[in-house]
Amino acid sequence: GIPRISTTSALHSKLNKSLAVQNVQLCSAVAMKDKQISLSQDNCENGSGALFSNLFSGMSLHTSSSLGRARQATRERKRKVYMANKKKKEERLRKNPVVHITIKEKQEMLAKGITKMQDWRPKDWGIFPSAEDNFWCSYNFTEPRWPLTDALSFLREHYHPSMLNDSNAIVRVKLEFDMKSGKQGRFVDAFNKMVPMMNGFERGVSEKTVLVFAKSAEAAETATQAGAKKVGGTELIDDIAKGKVDIIDFDYVLAHEDILLDLKPLIGILRDQFPKKTLGTVGTDMAKLVKTFSNGQYVEVEKPSDVIGYNNDPSYARCEAMIGRLQMEDKLIEENFISLLQNMMEASPKKNTGFITKAEIFVDERLKKKMRVHHDLIHDPLYTNYLKTKQAATA
Q: Each residue of 327-381: pLDDT tens digit?
């Protein structure tokens, strides 16, 4: 007949299997630090472990400690990759910053007539840097650069009484700067500077009174011709110490370098007005020193940021200043213009030769077009190369 399996043998086989599983778990818990676990018949009960000893002897059982080390190494590797990608992204955004525009900013841009983000320095897309004619196509030619005298004559024509009717308007100049320093990724901060106007003009500001200390007769004569109200040497120091001269009558006190040590008795009297090199009230060029503080102009160089419709450019800065009136002679206005450029160049980093990149003269907003002028102190390689090739062709 058909053989039948007894229930007792089936129960014994199930019991042996459960005992074997329990024995394996017990052995793996005891050998936590071992990579290879071999089960012997002596360590198992009822001889059931012998059936599985050969099976598990060649297997590698990982413990929780080894798994933890593996996870830690993976986390460190992933963190290194993440930090490397983060640095690359920061460097990419620093070179090409992405400006996220909100809906409100888009509406404000459309209200101003701006449809896309603009740069602070518009590029000259033309092939030729200047047109020889009075009419030209802006697609082929760049923005024209004019000599200062020609630009002033254009302004006089536009502000003639028959047109804008302001023949003695104040002439203003706008300068643009490249604020890059010698080191990569670093820029010059915005600054303020007192600029001397060599030829004074009416600009709605009262002229300052200046007192000058100078030993030599030559320096004293130069300071007097420059417009100093009172000039003197050691005798003036004695008069101030005795109270014969009231220091309140003067806005600025200046001094030549050769008399600076003789002024120590006046420290308590002059106080904040005491001449110091750090304040710029001590020097050797007395004409420039007097012009700076009597007819000088306070020029503020600013770096615009977070302006709606414009991309942020940390290397861009600008300033505006007044250099004369339209009825003044061209020579006088040009001297004030050169003085402005020279004093602005004093704040330039040593490694940055192209500090001033653009100069435009204008009067007010009634004439939307500003006249771009050229000078040797202005860094304009496109126009400079054009002049060199033109001179070489005519030579």
A: 999 999 999 999 999 999 988 887 667 899 999 999 998 998 899 999 999 998 8
Nearest Cα to Cα of residue 250 among 211, 201, 200, 306: 211
The residue behind tokens 């020193």 is 289
Distance from C-alpha of 98 to C-alpha of 226, rounded to nearest angstrom: 52
Segment 203-229 mean pLDDT: 88
Distance CA 159, CA 172 (A): 14
For 257, counting Cβ atoms within 10 Å of its Cβ (0-12 exposed, 13-18 middle, 19+ buried), the class is middle
**Beta pairing, strands 210-213 & 230-232:** parallel
Reported as a single tens digit per residue, the pLDDT across 271-294 is 888 998 888 889 888 988 888 888
**What is the SS3 assignment for the chain?**
CCCCCCHHHHHHHHHHHHHHHHHHHHHHHHCCCCCECCCCHHHCCCCCHHHHHHHHCCCECCCHHHHHHHHHHHHHHHHHHHHHHHHHHHHHHHHCCCCCCCHHHHHHHHHCCCCCCECCCCCCCCCECCCCCCCCCCCCECCCCECHHHHHHHHHHHCCCCCCCCCCCEEEEEEEEECECCCCCCECCCEEEEECCCCCCCCCCCCCCEEEECCCHHHHHHHHHHCCCEEECHHHHHHHHHCCCCHHHCCEEEEEHHHCHHHHHHHHHHHHHCCCCCCCCEECCHHHHHHHHHCCEEEEEECCCCCCCECCCCCEEEEEEEEEECCCCHHHHHHHHHHHHHHHHCCCCCCCCCCEEEEEEECCCCCCCCEEECCCCCCCHHHHHHHHHHHHHHC
Largest CA distance in the chain: 147
Would you tell me the crossing angle of helices 286-294 and 217-226 to the nearest 10 degrees?
30
| 349 neighbors 188 (Cβ within 8 angstroms) | yes
**What's the CA gap between 7 and 3, in Å, rounded?**
13
Task: Label residue 1 by pLDDT band (50, 70, 90).
Answer: very low
Each residue's pLDDT tens digit, 289-333:
888 888 888 899 999 877 777 888 888 999 999 999 999 999 999
Whether the model pTM is above 0.90: no
